[in-house]
Automatic annotation (TrEMBL):
<feature type="transmembrane region" description="Helical">
    <location>
        <begin position="20"/>
        <end position="44"/>
    </location>
</feature>
<keyword id="KW-0489">Methyltransferase</keyword>
<dbReference type="GO" id="GO:0012505">
    <property type="term" value="C:endomembrane system"/>
</dbReference>
<keyword id="KW-0808">Transferase</keyword>
<dbReference type="Pfam" id="PF03141">
    <property type="entry name" value="Methyltransf_29"/>
</dbReference>
<keyword id="KW-0325">Glycoprotein</keyword>
<keyword id="KW-0472">Membrane</keyword>
<dbReference type="GO" id="GO:0032259">
    <property type="term" value="P:methylation"/>
</dbReference>
<dbReference type="InterPro" id="IPR029063">
    <property type="entry name" value="SAM-dependent_MTases_sf"/>
</dbReference>
<keyword id="KW-0735">Signal-anchor</keyword>
<dbReference type="GO" id="GO:0016020">
    <property type="term" value="C:membrane"/>
</dbReference>
<protein>
    <recommendedName>
        <fullName>S-adenosyl-L-methionine-dependent methyltransferase</fullName>
    </recommendedName>
</protein>
<keyword id="KW-0812">Transmembrane</keyword>
<dbReference type="InterPro" id="IPR053223">
    <property type="entry name" value="Prob_Methyltransferase"/>
</dbReference>
<dbReference type="GO" id="GO:0008168">
    <property type="term" value="F:methyltransferase activity"/>
</dbReference>
<comment type="similarity">
    <text>Belongs to the methyltransferase superfamily.</text>
</comment>
<keyword id="KW-1133">Transmembrane helix</keyword>
Amino acid sequence: MRILCFPKYRFSKILGMFQIVLGVLVVIVSVSSLLRFYSAGFFMHNEDICKQFYGVQDVYEGFDVVSLSSRVNEVLDKMLTLQEKLESTVQGLEKNKDLSKGNVSMLEYKKFIEEEVIQPLYSAHITLRQIRLPRVENGTTSEDPLINTFVTEEIKKYITPKENRVGKKNIYGSEKIYNTIGHGCVSMKEQLQTYMDYDIGSFCKDDWNVAQNLMIKGCDPLPRRRCLTRASKLYQKPYPINESLWRIPDGRNVRWSNYLCRNFECLSSKNPKRGYSKCTGCFEMEKEKLKWVTNTSLPTDFLIKDALGVKPGEIRIGLDFGIGTGTFAARMREHNVTIVTTALNLGAPFNEMIALRGLIPLYVTLNQRLPFFDNTMDLIHTTGFMDGWIDLQLMDFILFDWDRILRPGGLLWIDRFFCNRKDLDDYMYMFLQFRYKKHKWAISPKSKDEVFLSALLEKPPRSL
C-alpha cells in the first residue's frame, strides 16, 4: 500500500505546483494587461484607446475615415438604386412586344430622364465631389475638445473647426472657423469668466472686443449681462434720414478706444494704417454711391435695377451677408426694399456706421445659424466676405442655412465671389447643388490665377 500511495502523493504535489505556477503566470499577464491599458489611457478615458490596440486611426488631421466610408456607401447605394430602377424599366419595356404602339410622349420621356436618371446621377456626383481625402502624415493627431461628446456624425462634422483652404488667416484674423452650438464656451472658460466679471448694476467695461473674440471662436450665444453698456461721452443725435444714408456720421457717436483710428477721416482707403483690410473705400461716400448703379467693364458687376427687374414688385425684405457699411441696404431702401446687413467690427466701427446711416445692422458671425425663420426672406445678397478661403464643408452648412430662410421664388445674389481658377469647379458645384433657376451667371478674370463669379439664382418651390 505504501508503494502505491507514494506515486499518488508525488502526482498530487506536482499538480499543485503546476497550479501555483499557472496562477503566477495569470497574475503576471493580468498585471501586464493592466499596465498596457493604463499606458493607452484607458483609466484616463482616452478616446484613442481603440487606435492604440487595433492600429487603425479613424481621424487623420480632423478627417473622419468612418465618415468617408459612410459617404462612399451613400453614393454606392444611390448608384445601385438607379441601376435597379433602370433595369426594372427596361424589363417593363421588354414585356411590351410592340414598342412602336407605346403611348409615351416626348414630355413624359423627358420627365422620366430628368427625375429618374439625371437627378440621381447629379446627387451622387455632388456627394462624391464633397468627399475630401485625408492627408496622412507621421505623428499623432490632436483633436479639439468635446467633439466626441456627441454621437451623431453630422453634429461632429458641424462643430469640428474648419481650416481655411489658403492656409492663411481669414477675415476674422483666425486660421479656422468654429461653428457654434454653445459648446465652445467650455474650452474658453477663462475668457468667458473675464467677460462675466463685472459689478451688477454698474457700467460694463469697454470690452466689446472680448465678446466679439468669444463669438468668433465659437462661444456663442453669449450670456446676458447685468451691467450698463457704455456709450460715447459726446454722443450726438443722428442726422435725419434724408441726410444720413449718404453722409459720414458724426465721429463723436462712436467709442474709438479699441481701434487704431480715432475718427472716420482716419478710415480713408488712402491711410495704410487704418486698421482694417477689407471693404476698401467703404467709409468714403463718393465711392460708395457708384456701387450697383453704375455700369463697369466687368460682366460680373450686376446692377440693382436689373436684379429687381427679374422679380418686379416681389422683393420687399432681404439679407446682405458680407462686410461693409450698409451701402447695398441704402441703395435697396431707395427702391422700398428693407435689407438687414450683417456686420462685425473687424478693425472699424461697421455696426455703428450702418446704424447711424439709419439702416439695420445684424451682429452675427459666419459660424452662426441665422436668426430668421424658414422661408421668410425675399433676397439674400453676399459680397466681399465669403470667398475662396472658405472650407467647402463649412460653406455647405452656410448655403443650406441660406436656403432655409430664403422663400420659394426668392433670389440668391452671389456678388463677385472670387477664388483660384483651380478651385472654381468645386465652388460652382456648391452653388449649383440646390438646382436654383439661373437668371444671371457670369465669370470674369480677377488676376492671373483668380476669377470672379457672380450669379443671380431663384429658389425653386419644392412643394410637398
